[in-house]
């Protein structure tokens, strides 16, 4: 029985992680969970899984929650996230929070030798070098949940990493893939939230529409698989059936395929190296699909992807700025404060204003993250 601490239990990945745990309740037990403020979503989860500890965003949410639950210790904020993540009783940390709020807890968990299933790509974008250094130092398993990275991880299974030519990430194109840049001028939040293939949280769905999601994933792949940016490609693939590919020295390409269902990579990260039944998922039927499409990525159409490659190549605090600026801009867009196209122009402005600090420590990362959030907010205030 593995004890799991699940950060982001009320979110899209969190809920699907609980589905997997429900199916395999002889293998996994929910020791602790964390969520932000969605108390109504959290109450039935807490009642069903009876975790020993729950972490919420702040005191106000704690007060809202405690009248509804018994026998569960309620903790608050960053300190709470760190406490449950490094807790002696935690075997596996599933990090499925949205945003760089997951960084410190992840570092503490690794330092305590916990195994990590990582969905929270922002943690790797903001401070990938710190995270991967700790992973190497403490020899923990750090398994990707993100569908593309799970695919790459599977393609690399048993292969010699020195014989990798390139990693090829697939991108669906997001909600606006068939629109020209001019047509993007009037798009709404409701339109942006209609992802063609995946049902996900609001922030990642907007990231997918701006193509920043793929940009974050390029940086995530760089850190997870220790591959230089010159060996990472992105190809448009509107069906999201091939989740990603790896090309090897002999020109052989290995791809991982499946219907778009996040329960597959979530379960694989929890049960690796075993592949257990997943009865709830739809099997891939290529005959029914008939045709798979691939298109060249257009960096002028999707400037966020170019910004992410450039920030990744620059390194240091540049990706911290990219991530923090993006988090603020997407939030402003979702709250109707800025237009869709302002997301990319404001991120670009923040990147241009930043003087990079190479190999920053944690304190520097956190400081740059906060400064960037304030700066980007000041563009609209
Ligand atoms: N959804 C997907 O299919 C995929 C997601 N990912 C990545 O996984 C991560 C989660 O995405 P997704 O599940 O879609 O996001 P959601 O927005 O659906 O869920 C985010 C979760 O994080 C919680 N949260 C937010 N802020 C805090 C905080 N300060 N303290 C504690 N918990 C907090 C939310 O709580 P609450 O809502 O209660 O406030 C919620 O449980 C992201 O990094 C995303 O990029 C990667 C691949 C696919
Ligand atoms: C399910 C998942 O991993 C998402 O990151 C997904 O890949 C988003 O799709 P696109 O970014 O390709 O539109
Ligand atoms: Mn992905």
Q: Which outline best applies?
A: globular
CATH fold label of the domain at 2-140: Rossmann fold
Strand content: 15-25%
Percent of residues in helical segments?
40-55%
Give the CATH class of the domain at 2-140. Answer: Alpha Beta
- Succession of helices and strands: EHEHEHEHEHEHEHEHHHEEEHHEHHHH
The CATH architecture of the domain at 2-140 would be 3-Layer(aba) Sandwich
Low-confidence stretches: none
Structural class: alpha/beta
Query: What characterizes the major β-sheet?
Result: 7 strands, parallel
Ligand catalogue: NADPH dihydro-nicotinamide-adenine-dinucleotide phosphate, 1-deoxy-D-xylulose-5-phosphate, manganese (II) ion
Number of discrete helical segments: 16
Domain DXP reductoisomerase C-terminal: 257-374
Keywords: Isoprene biosynthesis, Magnesium, Manganese, Metal-binding, NADP, Oxidoreductase
Binding site for Mn(2+): 146, 148, 217
Organism: Aquibacillus salsiterrae
Plain-language structure description:
InterPro entries: DXP_reductoisomerase, DXP_reductoisomerase_C, DXP_reductoisomerase_N, DXPR_C, DXPR_C_sf, NAD(P)-bd_dom_sf. Residues 257-374 form the DXP reductoisomerase C-terminal domain. It comes from Aquibacillus salsiterrae. Pathway: Isoprenoid biosynthesis; isopentenyl diphosphate biosynthesis via DXP pathway; isopentenyl diphosphate from 1-deoxy-D-xylulose 5-phosphate: step 1/6. Belongs to the DXR family. The protein has 381 residues and is an alpha/beta fold. It has a domain at 2-140: Rossmann fold (3-Layer(aba) Sandwich), CATH 3.40.50. The chain is built from 16 helices and 12 strands. The protein has helices at residues 12-23, 39-49, 59-66, 77-86, 103-111, 121-138, 147-155, 189-192, 202-210, 212-225, 263-271, 286-289, 303-314, 318-334, 340-353, 362-380; strands spanning 2-7, 28-34, 53-56, 73-76, 92-95, 115-118, 142-144, 164-171, 232-236, 242-248, 253-257, 295-296. The strands form 2 sheets. The protein has a 7-stranded parallel sheet with strand order 4-3-2-1-5-6-7, with helices on both faces. A 5-stranded mixed sheet has the order 11-10-8-9-12, covered by helices on one side. Strand 10 (242-248) and strand 11 (253-257) form a beta hairpin. The longest helix is centred in the last third of the chain and has 19 residues, at 362-380. The chain starts with a strand and ends with a helix. The mean pLDDT is 98. 1-deoxy-D-xylulose-5-phosphate (DXP) binds at residues 146-148, 171-172, 174, 198, 204, 208, 213-214, 262.
């Amino acid at each position: 029985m593995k004890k799991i601490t699940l950060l982001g239990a009320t979110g899209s990945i969190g809920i699907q992680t609980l589905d997997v745990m429900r199916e395999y309740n002889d293998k996994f037990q929910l020791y602790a969970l964390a969520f932000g403020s969605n108390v109504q979503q959290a109450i039935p989860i807490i009642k069903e899984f009876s975790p020993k500890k729950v972490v919420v965003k702040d005191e106000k949410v704690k007060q809202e929650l405690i009248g509804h639950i018994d026998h569960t210790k309620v903790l608050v904020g960053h300190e709470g996230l760190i406490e449950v993540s490094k807790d002696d009783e935690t075997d596996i940390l599933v990090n499925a929070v949205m945003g760089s709020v997951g960084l410190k807890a992840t570092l503490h968990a690794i330092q305590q030798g916990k195994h990590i299933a990582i969905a929270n790509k922002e943690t790797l974008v903001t401070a990938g070098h710190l995270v991967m250094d700790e992973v190497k130092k403490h020899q923990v398993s750090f398994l990707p949940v993100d569908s593309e990275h799970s695919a790459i991880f599977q393609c690399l299974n048993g292969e010699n990493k020195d014989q990798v030519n390139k990693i090829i990430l697939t991108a669906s194109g997001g909600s606006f893939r068939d629109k020209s840049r001019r047509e993007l001028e009037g798009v709404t939040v409701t339109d942006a939230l209609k992802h063609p293939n995946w049902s996900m949280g609001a922030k990642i769905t907007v990231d997918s529409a701006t193509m920043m999601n793929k940009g974050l994933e390029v940086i995530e792949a760089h850190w997870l698989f220790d591959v230089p940016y010159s060996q990472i490609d992105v190809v448009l693939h509107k069906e999201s059936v091939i989740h990603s590919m790896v090309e090897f020295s002999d020109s052989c390409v290995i791809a991982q395929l499946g219907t778009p269902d996040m329960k597959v990579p979530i379960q694989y990260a929890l049960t690796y190296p075993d592949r257990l039944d997943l009865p709830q998922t739809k099997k891939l039927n290529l005959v029914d699909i008939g045709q798979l499409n691939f298109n060249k990525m257009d960096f002028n159409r999707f400037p966020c992807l170019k910004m992410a490659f450039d920030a990744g190549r620059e390194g240091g605090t540049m990706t911290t700025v990219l991530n923090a600026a993006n988090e603020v801009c997407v939030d402003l867009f979702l709250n109707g404060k800025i237009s869709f196209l302002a997301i990319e122009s404001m991120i670009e402005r923040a990147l241009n204003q930043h003087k990079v600090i190479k190999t920053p420590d944690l304190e520097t990362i956190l400081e740059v993250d906060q400064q960037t959030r304030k700066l980007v907010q000041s563009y609209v205030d």
